[in-house]
Amino acid sequence: MVKEIRGQLGTNKWKAQLDLFAMHFVRYYQCRSHADGKPRCGALENFHEPEIGLIGNTAKICSDNLHKDRFFYAAAQKKPKARKLCLQFLKSGNDTFAPESRERACDAWLAHWEDSKAACAALTVPGMAYAEKQEKWVKHCPETLASFYGEDSYCKEFKGFTMNNDPANPEECNDKQECTDYGAFLKASKAGDAELCGESGLCRFFMTNKPESCGVYAKQLEDWYCGRFSWPEFAKASP
Fold first, then answer.
1. How far apart are CA 40 and CA 62, in angstroms?
2. Is the pLDDT of residue 157 over 90?
3. By the 8 A CB rule, do 24 and 221 touch?
4. What is the DSSP letter of 231?
5. Structural domain count, the chain
6. Which residues contact 148 (CB under 8 A, 6 or more apart)?
7. What is the pLDDT of residues 42-74, one digit of tens each?
8. According to the model, what pLDDT value does residue 161 have?
9. Average pLDDT over residues 119-148
10. What global pTM score does this model have?
């Protein structure tokens, strides 16, 4: 049946849907890693489709996102370990800053954590990023930092890419989910009200420390997967 569905959808749309499917798994195992206090991303090492092969690099994306989440939480809560977690984040999943400039980058970012414009001004001075990436970094710094602050206008308009850099489904990419998760936590923590987390499992876990908060991602995965069987393309491919 998979072959028939792939034929009905076309290779590009099929790959894009697999990207999204994988990202739901990433969010779930990412949250479970926080809840269990140990990495669970290894479960995604062999996430692949028989003919297409490995779907993105889900295990690494999950692992990199853990570093990003931990840094975000510590910085948002003004934890002493924020600088250490910032360095781990820049080392694990960021290729903008050279090793020798990462400490300066973290110090600049944390010094201006509550002011994204000031942070970008400090983070885009010449010599902070790799020379060949300076121009691109200056251009994208505002939107990159906006996602960390969960700014509503940015999250709603996010036009990022799925794991295979296929913009076929820009509204459902992983970065947009992180943006809304972070925004929800900032609002909820400021008010001291976990109900403001809405459907964000990560926010609820950060607020309550309850592992069952991650269940929302399992439910999203179930709804996404089962919902696809109502597509006309699936019906055509059914026996």
1. 9
2. no
3. yes
4. S
5. 1
6. 72, 116, 182
7. 888 877 655 555 556 788 888 988 999 999 999
8. 38
9. 89
10. 0.79
Rounded Cα distance, 169 and 118, in Å:
32
Which stretches does DSSP call E strand in the chain? 48-49, 53-54
* Contacts with 185 (C-beta within 8 Å, 6 or more apart), sequence order: 73, 76, 150, 197, 200, 202, 203, 206, 207
Facing residues of 48 across strands? Answer: 54
Contact 86, 109 (CB under 8 A): yes
Q: How many whole angstroms separate alpha carbon 221 and alpha carbon 207?
A: 22
Residue 114 DSSP code: T
Distance, CA of 215 to chain centre: 17
With b for 16 or more beta-carbon neighbours within 10 A and e for fewer, the 18-57 pattern comes to bbbbbbbbbbbbbbbbbbeeebbbebbeebeeeeeeebbb
β-bridge mates for residue 49, sequence order: 53
Residue found by looking up tokens 């960390």 in the block = 148
Among 12-16, 50-54, 86-90, whose mean pLDDT is lowest? 50-54
Residue 101 scores a pLDDT above 50: yes
CB distance 164 to 19 below 8 Å: yes
Give the span between the Cα atoms of 214 and 102, in whole angstroms: 32
Domain region containing 157: 2-237
